[in-house]
């Protein structure tokens, strides 16, 4: 499998989601975030987009989001229990396994995901993580976990013009959770967990500032 090509295709895909404003329907709105969705072209489900402004420089926000083993994200993101590096392909491309806890009052069992992840910087100062599912010989499906599949997903930290201590954070999730989950459970889980993600991220960035 050409991991590099797959990773670059995901970055192009997320960039197209960022630029294409058509067809998104708002499903949740709060002071922190607007979550919207549209049907996915990658699998029979939805792609969800989160948009919010976080108080903190892009560097600080990225410190909380960057996909590295033993990174800060495992500490604050309640949907990430473990994050393991399986293989470093290039400096900016890695294969990782993410383990998530049970959710939705136990209806969603613990899951694991194996993804290729590309970290990419853009000329406007944005920095992004771009991920999609792959198979890797070192990590077949594990007992005790339902194997889920992320389709093109990731986070983009975008500088806010004239406000160096603020960051626009765009997130895209389109995940096949696997298992036989009712569609209604999946459709209610993502908007609420994304809203929670933004409020936890804001607190994590603030805690970094205080140190």
Structure description:
The chain is an alpha+beta fold and 211 residues long. It contains four helices and ten strands. Strands 1, 2, 3, 4, 5, 6, 7, 8, 9 and 10 form a ten-stranded mixed β-sheet that branches. Strand 2 and strand 3 form a beta hairpin. Helix 2 packs across helix 4. The longest helix has 27 residues.
Number of helices: 4
Distance between the termini: 43 Å
Structural class: alpha+beta
Low-pLDDT stretches? none
Largest sheet: 10 strands, mixed
Measured on Cα atoms, how large is the radius of gyration?
A: 16 Å
Overall outline: globular
The whole-number mean of residue pLDDT values reads: 94
Counting DSSP E segments of at least 2 residues, the number of strands comes to: 10
Estimated share of beta-strand residues = 35-45%
Percentage of residues assigned to helices: 25-40%
- The sequence of SSEs as H and E is HEEEHHEEEEEEEH
Task: For the structure shown, list the relevant keywords.
211 residues; alpha+beta; ten-stranded mixed sheet
Topology, element by element:
Layout: H1 3-19, E1 25-29, E2 34-39, E3 46-55, H2 58-65, H3 73-76, E4 82-90, E5 93-100, E6 111-121, E7 127-133, E8 146-147, E9 149-160, E10 163-176, H4 183-209
Parallel strand pairs: 6-8
Antiparallel strand pairs: 1-2, 2-3, 3-10, 4-5, 5-6, 6-7, 7-9, 9-10
Helix pairs in contact: 2-4
Short description:
This protein has about 210 residues and is α+β, with helices and mostly antiparallel strands. The protein contains 4 helices and 10 strands. Strands 1, 2, 3, 4, 5, 6, 7, 8, 9 and 10 form a 10-stranded mixed β-sheet that branches.
């Amino acid at each position: 499998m050409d991991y590099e090509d797959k990773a670059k295709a995901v970055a192009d895909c997320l960039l197209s989601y960022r630029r294409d404003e058509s067809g998104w329907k708002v499903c949740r709105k709060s002071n922190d975030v607007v979550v919207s969705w549209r049907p996915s072209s990658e699998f029979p489900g939805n792609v969800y987009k989160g948009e919010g402004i976080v108080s903190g420089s892009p560097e600080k926000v990225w410190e909380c989001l960057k996909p590295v083993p033993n990174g800060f994200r495992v500490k604050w993101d309640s949907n990430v229990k473990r994050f393991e590096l399986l293989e470093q392909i290039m400096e900016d491309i890695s294969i990782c396994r993410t383990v998530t806890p049970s959710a939705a009052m136990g209806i969603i069992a613990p899951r694991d995901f194996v993804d290729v992840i590309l970290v990419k910087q853009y000329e406007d100062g944005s920095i992004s993580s771009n991920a999609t599912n792959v198979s890797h010989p070192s990590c077949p499906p594990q007992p005790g976990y339902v194997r889920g599949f992320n389709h093109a997903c990731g986070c983009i930290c975008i500088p806010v013009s004239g406000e160096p201590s603020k960051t626009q954070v765009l997130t895209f999730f389109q995940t096949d959770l696997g298992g036989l989950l009712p569609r209604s459970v999946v459709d209610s889980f993502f908007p609420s967990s994304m809203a929670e993600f933004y409020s936890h991220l804001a607190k994590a960035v603030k805690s970094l500032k205080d140190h």
